[in-house]
Structures are given as structure tokens and as C-alpha cells.
Amino acid sequence: MIYKRSSALFIEAERVIPGGVNSPVRAFKGVGGTPIFVKEAKGAYLYDEDGNRLIDYINSWGPMILGHAYQPVVDAVIEKAKKGTSFGMPTEIETQIAELAVSMVPNIDKIRFVNSGTEACMSAVRLARGYSGKDKIIKFAGCYHGHSDSFLIQAGSGASTFGTPNSPGVTKGTAQDTLLARYNDIENVKELIAANPNAIACIIIEPVAGNMGCIPPKEGFLKALRDVCDANNILLIFDEVMTGFRLAKGGAQDLYNIKADIVCFGKVIGGGLPVGAFAAREEIMNFLAPVGPVYQAGTLSGNPLAMAAGLAMLTGLNTDPEVFNRLDEKTEYLHKGMALVLNKNKIVHTINRVGSMISVHFAKDDVIDFETSAKGNNDTFKKFFHGLLDEGVYIAPSAFETWFITDALTFEDLDFTINAVNKVSKTL
Ligand SMILES: *Cc1c(COP(=O)(O)O)cnc(C)c1O
């Protein structure tokens, strides 16, 4: 395929935008080459500035679960925009989407809308600290909760249980309050708690990890985490920015039947507009301003266009009883088809999948945490990525990303993809 115009646009963008992109992973640093500029998208397909058609397995990193330019969202946004795009005053549609979200998700009474997943997670942690009166948090290596300071932390060296900053600009002071645990390792969590008695406000986790490839929680892991939180008076935060309204109507809480204390949302909940949200039972949410002492605010929070898009998206998911089954079925079909051709071509690999999240790892061992995910062969991944791109299949430009399956994909699209994987795997 030819990417002449994309390449030219990228050079122009680099002059005025750092790295030419407004979010780093778009820059193709993990795979080499220059990013593709999108002109438009419809259903399962992207159309780029050079006129190429690509089958899209990123779907804006999750939101377009019902396909690009999903008509009810487009219509809702257009109608709302005609009536004014922001007021900084309450609107009825905020209550409508809040009521719908609360009815779909287990264990939440109240929800607050913000503008991104980052804001949701950052605010959830502040709320947990304010509510519990404790400062430290536990997060898991390889889980992503947005780019706020408390989360840009890597494991400390040696026997240290403290985290250290993994980006310049994050202070040591902030890093000290974030403890790093290994995903799927409950003993490691217990050790951190024992070493920091009565100091831990919350544990934040992606209930299915999606930012180191797709990594399912081991059988019993989430339940054990719930128990350890209860035993130590620690709040459990499920970061469902990726899994919420994707794995089931009620997200991972619903799928695994585990109660979180605070739940974070983003991606699907905004239908492709900038939206995040966090939610909890009433007693916790009432700790937020203006009822409670924990401050949190936003000029554009609950923006009418964003709420209209989110409401149309959630309504679409809520009124289609088969949508999550269909998504599972399509993803399983893709999984089996890819495994068959990769095995046939003797490519060492592991495929992880939960619902409509799936990732291919060029690793021979099970991928269960950040360490095992990082063992994947990145050179093979790069070839795989560029090979698929040449065939018209767009997957995330990094081996650490999940593919997001959309309901707009047909079985023909999936067969096309499996054929492309077959062709590309002969070149790996
Ligand atoms: C994408 C993501 C975030 C951050 O959301 P943004 O809207 O990009 O700020 C947080 N947590 C998880 C699990 C995510 O996948």
C-alpha cells in the first residue's frame, strides 16, 4: 500500500506537534514507520488520506464497539449541537445517562462524569484517599490508569517496596505513595500490605488487563483481592475504562461477579467523545464536593454533546440483548482462525482473549503479567504489524496493546483477516 499523503501530513504535523501526535502510541515508535492519517471511517473500516481501506482492530482504542460513525450517536450529536455546545449549567441529559449507567452496572448508586479515563482514575484515587484518610495506593505493574502522576510509577529497585517515577516530572514524593504489585500474584499484594500497615487507601486494578496485551485475571485472583481488601479496610477500585460496557452490560464486575468499591469508566461510555466517569455506592460518592469534602470539578464535565453520544451508545448496548454474545462469538472465531494458521506455519505464539478483547503474543510461555508479556518477540511483532497493514488490516502499533473487536465486523471481514494472518505468518 501507498502512504504518500500520510507521510507528507506527518512531516507537517511534526513541525507543530511534538512527535506529530497528540498521544504517544499513535507515533509508531513501537513498530517503526510513519503513522497513517485517517480521513474517515464507517462501520469496521478506516479510510486513510491515501484512499486505502483498512479493517480496524483498534476502534479508537475501544469506544467504537458498535462500529465507526454509528448512526444513533452521529444523529444524537448533530441534534444536540444545534442547541448549543456547552453551558456550564446542569442539563437533563446528564441525569438520563447517569440513570442508565447506574441501572446497567452492579454496585453503584451514583456516578460523576469527567472528560477522560485519566481524570476518572485520578479522581477515584483522590476520593479513596479522602474517604479512607490514608495516603498509599497499590497498583499493578503493566496496568495503565491514565497519565496522572500517581500512576506513572515503576517498581523500585532491590528490596524496596516503594515505587520510583517512570517519567521525568513525577516527583519522588508522589512515587513513594504508589506501591507496585505483580498482576495475578496475590501473595505479592499481601506482602505489600503487611509492609505498610494501615497506610493503604486503595488497590486499583484493571480487572482484565488490557494495556500489556490482554491478560485475564487468574481464576480466583479478583475474589482473593476483594477478600484481602475487606480484611484490611482497603477500597478496591476497578479501572473499567477498557472493560466497562464491553465485557458485559455491567463490565468485569458483572462478568466475574466481584464487587468493587469504586469503578472508573472511559472509552465506550463516551461513544467516541471525550468522556470518563467514576462511580460508587452512595456513602462513598457523597464524600465528593459539593456534598462532601473531596474536591473534583470540570468546566466541560457532562458536556451535552459528549452526554448525547454516550447516552446513544449505552442505549444501543442496553437494548440489544445479543450484542455481547455476538462480540464474544466473533472474537472467538478470530482467535481460533488465527491460532490455526499460526500453528500451521509453526509460529511460536500465545493468544489471550476475554470477551471482545484479544491479543497475539509472540511468546512461548503463558502471558500472565508484565514480565511474561515483555518476553514477547518484538521483531516478529513489528513484521506482523507491517505485514497485516500491507494486507489492509490495522492492529495496534505496539505489542503491548489489546485488539478491540467491534460488532460492525462481519464473518467475511474475520475470514479476510485470518487469510491475511496466514499470508503474513509465512514471512515471519
Ligand atoms: C485508556 C485507559 C485509561 C486512560 O483513559 P484516557 O481517556 O486515555 O485518559 C485508563 N485506564 C485504562 C484501563 C485505559 O485503558
Please write out the topology.
Elements: H1 4-16, E1 38-42, E2 45-48, E3 53-56, H2 71-81, H3 92-104, E4 110-114, H4 117-132, E5 136-140, E6 153-155, E7 163-165, H5 172-176, E8 178-181, H6 186-195, E9 200-205, H7 221-232, E10 235-239, H8 251-256, E11 262-265, E12 276-280, H9 282-285, H10 304-318, H11 323-344, E13 350-354, E14 357-361, H12 370-374, H13 378-390, E15 393-394, E16 403-404, H14 411-425
Parallel strand pairs: 3-15, 5-8, 5-9, 9-10, 10-11
Antiparallel strand pairs: 1-2, 2-3, 4-12, 6-7, 11-12, 13-14, 14-16
Helix pairs in contact: 2-10, 3-10, 6-7, 11-14, 13-14
The chain binds pyridoxal-5'-phosphate.
Residues 116-118, 121, 144-146, 206, 210-211, 239, 241-242, 266, 276 line the site of pyridoxal-5'-phosphate (PLP).
Mind explaining what this structure looks like?
A hairpin with a 2-residue loop joins strand 1 (38-42) and strand 2. The strands form four sheets. A seven-stranded mixed β-sheet has the order 4-12-11-10-9-5-8, with helices on both faces. A four-stranded mixed β-sheet has the order 1-2-3-15. It has helices at 4-16, 71-81, 92-104, 117-132, 172-176, 186-195, 221-232, 251-256, 282-285, 304-318, 323-344, 370-374, 378-390, 411-425; strands at 38-42, 45-48, 53-56, 110-114, 136-140, 153-155, 163-165, 178-181, 200-205, 235-239, 262-265, 276-280, 350-354, 357-361, 393-394, 403-404. By secondary structure, the chain is of the alpha/beta class. The two termini are 19 Å apart. Helix 3 runs parallel beside helix 10 (304-318) and helix 13 crosses helix 14 (411-425). The chain has two domains: 4-69 and 321-425, Alpha-Beta Complex (Aspartate Aminotransferase, domain 1), CATH 3.90.1150.10; 71-318, Type I PLP-dependent aspartate aminotransferase-like (Major domain) (Aspartate Aminotransferase, domain 2). Residues 116-118, 121, 144-146, 206, 210-211, 239, 241-242, 266, 276 line the site of pyridoxal-5'-phosphate. Pyridoxal-5'-phosphate (PLP) binds at residues 116-118, 121, 144-146, 206, 210-211, 239, 241-242, 266, 276.
